[in-house]
Design a protein that fits this description.
Number of domains: 3
Low-confidence stretches: 1-26
Strand content: 15-25%
Number of strands: 14
CATH topology of the largest domain: Metallo-beta-lactamase, Chain A
Helix content: 25-40%
Bound molecules: zinc ion
CATH superfamily of the largest domain: Ribonuclease Z/Hydroxyacylglutathione hydrolase-like
Distance between the termini: 51 Å
Strand order of the largest sheet: 1-2-3-4-5-6-7
Order of helices and strands: HHHEEEEHEHHEHHHHEEEEEEHEEHHH
CATH class of the largest domain: Alpha Beta
Amino acid sequence: MITRREALLTGCGLAAALAAMPSRASAAAVARLLRDEPARFFPWTDLGDGLWAVIDPDTGGNCLLALGSDEALLVDTKFPSIGQALLREAQEVGKKLRYAVNTHHHADHTGGNVAFNAAGIETVAHPKAEKRILDNWQQFIQHTARGVGFVGGLKRPTQDQVLREAGELADNLRHLDETDWGPTLLMTGDEMELTFGGRTAQLKHFGRNAHTDNDTVVRIPDANILHTGDLVFAGLHPFFDPSAGVTARGWIGVLRELRAMCDADTRVIPGHGQRGKGDRSLIDDQIEYLERLVESVQAEIEQGVPLDEAVQKSWPFMEGLGFEQIRPRAIAAVYKELSDAD
Ligand SMILES: [Zn+2]
C-alpha cells in the first residue's frame, strides 16, 4: 500500500490516489478525498515543509511552490494560456508570490511569465535564458493563439474561467511585445540566492550545455528539495532540442554534478513526470538512459546504419516510457551529435 502522498507524486492527482485504495474502503475514502480536493485546475500536491508541487505531464513543466513566512517562490510558469490560472492558484495555495523562477527558456516553463509580469511578480532567469526568450518570443504567440483549444481539451475544474483567460490573452496579443514574456530579474552569475519570507532558494546553472544552453536548477536547502528543470524527465523520453544547444554528453556531465548535490534524503522534482519516491534515483535513471542512448546510437553509426533507419530503433532501456512521440528526435539528435564529432 503506497501512501496518498506517494500516489499523488507518482500519478496525477485524484485518479492515481483512487487507484491506490483498497476496494472495501473506496466509498468512504472517495467521499473524503472529494471533500479534501478543492476545485482547482492544477493537481496541487502538499509535500509538507511549506512546499507544494504541480506534477502534471499534460500542462507542461512541473512546478514547485515554496512558502516562506509571508512570501513565496514558484519554480516555472507553464504555458502562456494557463499562466493566469497558475498564478491565481499559487497565490490561493500559498502566500503572496515574490518570485517566479524559470529553469530554462522552453515555452512550457516560461510562457506563463506574461501573467506573472503583469501582476508585478519578479520573474527570474539566467541571462542565456532571457536571450532565447527574447529571440524566440514568437513561440509564445503561437502557443497563445492555440491556447483556447489546448485548455478546451483538458476538461478540468474551473475550466470555464481558464478558457476565458486564455481567450482574453489571445485577444490582447497585439498589445504585447517580447519584454512582456522575458524575465524581470536576471541571475547575476551562474549561481544566485533568492530570499523570500525568511527562506532561501539557491539557483545554479552549470556553465555548459545540457538539455539547453541555459538549464538552471533550484534548491531549497532548508527542506533538502531540488527542482531539476528539464535535466530530468521521470518515466518519460527526454526532449531533445538541437536549436537550444542540446548535447547528450554535456547533459550526462551536468547530471553527474547534479547527482553530487544530493544525498539519500534529497527530494527531486523533475521537469516532467515523477516516479517512485522522487529521490536522486531519478537522476541516476536519466544518466543511465542518456548513456545507453549514446552507446546504442554510436553502435548504429559504426555499423553504417543511416539516420532515417536509426530513428526507427528502440532499445530495452526505452521500454515503458511515456512521451513515445519524442523518441525518434532523441535518437536523431544524438546521431547528429556523434556524427559531427567524428
Ligand atoms: Zn525543456
